[in-house]
Structures are given as C-alpha cells and as structure tokens.
Design a protein that fits this description.
The chain is mostly beta strands. It contains one helix and ten strands. The protein has an eight-stranded mixed sheet, with no helix packed on it. Strands 3-4 form a two-stranded antiparallel ribbon. This is Regulatory protein.
Length: 125
C-alpha cells in the first residue's frame, strides 16, 4: 500500500504512552522486528492542531526511543498508510502511522519580561 507523508509543521505532539515493544502475537509475546532486525516499538502520541483539535496516534518506530510520558516531541518523517484485514470473518480497517524516529521538540522560547520601569520625574507629577 502507498505511504502518505504527514505534514507535521502545524501540529504539536505530546507523548501520551511511552515506547513499548510492538507484538506480533499477544499469546507468545513475540516482538515485531524490521528488515534490519531492530525491534519495532509503538509510541502513543496526541496531535493537536492550531484550532485545538486533538487526535490520538499510535506511531510505530524502529528501535527504542528516548521519550517519556508528557514530553513534547516531533515524529521525524511521519507517514500514514491505510490497512485492512479480515479476522474471524470480520473486516477491519484503519490508518497506521510510522516514523523514522521520535525526538524531543525544540524548547519553546518564552519571552522574558522587559526591564522594570525606571522611576523618574514624570512619576512625581
């Protein structure tokens, strides 16, 4: 299926579920690996747009990521791809997400208050 690049420039991502290994089989606990043999992890992110709409995404990424709950992060090279499957006669479908890595977002610069007003002759009047 076709991978669709996601423009993250106007979105703010927060880690809402720390990295955990993606399992191939819940019963056996087998961990999914990528083509290079690296374990695949799932990271839960909330994505907020400037209008305040929020979506929750589970993003697959190779290798353990150094992010924790509550951190503002940026998924690098985020892509979406549609999927569908039939399990037990029931058709399921959705959109899955994958990123090359997840990094901490650059700190937001908070403006510092300007210098305190200087008392002068104008205050005396």
């Amino acid at each position: 299926m076709r991978n669709i690049p996601v423009d993250v420039s106007n979105l703010t991502f927060v880690c809402v579920s720390p990295p955990r290994p993606k399992l191939v089989d819940q019963d056996t606990g087998e961990v999914k690996v990528d083509r290079n043999g690296q374990a695949v992890f799932t990271v839960g992110l909330s994505a907020a747009d400037p209008m305040g709409r929020v979506e929750l995404l589970n993003v697959a990424v190779s290798g353990d990521q150094d992010v924790t709950l509550g951190q503002i992060v940026t998924p690098v090279a985020l892509t979406a791809f549609p999927w569908e499957q039939i399990r037990n006669g029931e058709k399921r479908w959705g959109i899955a997400y994958r990123a090359e890595r997840i990094i901490l977002a650059a700190p937001v610069a908070v403006p510092s208050p300007g210098p305190a007003p200087v008392s002068g002759a104008a205050d005396a009047a």
